[in-house]
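Human: Here is a favour to ask of a fellow structure person. Comparing notes only helps if you start from a blank page. I am asking you to supply a protein in sequence and structure-token form. Write it directly below this note and I will take it from there.

Assistant:
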Amino acid sequence: MARDELFSGSHLDWLIADGTDNDVVLASRVCLVRNLRELPFPNRADLGQLAEVAERTAAVLGDVEEALDEPFDGVELSKCTALEQNVLWEKQLISRILLKNPAHRSAYISNDRSMSILINEENHLRIQAMTAGFDLKTPYERASRVDDVFEAKLDFAFDEKLGYLTSCPTDLGTGLRASVMLHLPGLVYTENIGNILNISPQIGLSMTAMYGEGAESAGNVFAVANKLSLGLTERELSDNLRISVGEIVAQERRARKSLMLYDKERIEDEVWRAYGVLHYARALGDGETLALLSRVRLGVDLGIIEGLASSVFGDILIASRANYLCGLAGNENMSKNEIDRKRAQVVRRILESTQ
């Protein structure tokens, strides 16, 4: 895959609406964070120490590519424009934290875009792997293989009692953070999403809106992740998240069934209206697009709309982001009206290409 596609492409294989429970679970992600022994964490390191971390980790990349039989694109954040940096963030290939101070910060992104290795983020090393649907095993195994390669070459900060030492106390121990990306229009429409948000911290999970805040999620997309890793094994963390997400999936399906049983005509009307606006609009706002897209995806999952690939959701989710659109147009100074017109054009093109 060409490096230019890293910034210009909108398709991500791990957002294709495939895999287990793909009617509700969009994608699964596993992150492992590590730090080099005897070097300060990135927030306390000087530029020389950050450069040393970058140099040491870069020297291992060839072994990582050989172990995975997968090439990686190296991206030095300081050599990217602000627009390019934000496009990578919109694609969830890097974190916002990495952009605060790009000096000696870099990312290695796999050819299939399902794995990123972030250097000098909150920790010296963050290995993240993503896959479509509800599947924590596959990304964990991939991230662990990369972790093993780095650990064979580098001396990680590790304590016999505390486990892997990290910049954030919640990551102490395994250094593992697993998360699942969910589409929950049923729970939002039936006003039950608040109950899920409130109970999540009580069972060791965090639940946040991917686009928006709290229950006010544009697009009804939420991320559920483990909050703690200290004192728990990787298996325990994974099982807790798997069981909890399984219950959320079941509740979402019950909510959808209830909507179709008691409010079918309204749901069908909203789905087709949303499809019509996305298909014919000449200008689309950001939040408006996400709301309409959620209804269309719900229509596909409920069998209301036939012949439209559910992978359209992921493609439009990426292609409708403001920075991506500016990059596509080659103009980082586009006005809001210009972005809205470009967004509508891109959405129409994606929908037409799937028919």
Q: What stands out?
A: Residues 234-262 form the longest helix (29 residues).
